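The protein record passed on below.

***
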Amino acid sequence: MADESDKIADTGGAQGHFRALERLYAEAPINQLFDSRLEIGEAGTARIFFDVDERYYHAAGAVHGTAYFKMLDDAAFYAANSLVSDRFILTTAFNLLFTKPLKSGPVIAEGRWVSGKRRVFVADARLVDSEGEEIARGTGTFMRSHIPLASLPGYKTDD
């Protein structure tokens, strides 16, 4: 029996699914707090473009770890959910590695699927600053939920 990702590729519905995930991201209430934009170019990958500023700083004048987590988790999450067209997936664990302090400016979160296609997925992500340097990376595990994507506000396919 073919899994859901095979159905997406076979029916040519991948691009519609990717655009629907991008709309879902854009309409999520949390993303009204972040100047960001999601792009999914192919199954198993996601890129999110962020602009960070002093609103996200901790007391020592650099971006707080919660913002790192948000950016990394989102990129890995959407890379994994790009392979699942029927259900919303949920983060079950996430590990972070901070390598460089981040100040204001553009940041790209690059996510990629690593393994899993049925129930549990592993994906990783890295943050790249405006100079092209990696400033953090993370790996997460994600699980299919019982929540249909089609039931979520913002998830609208072009089909």
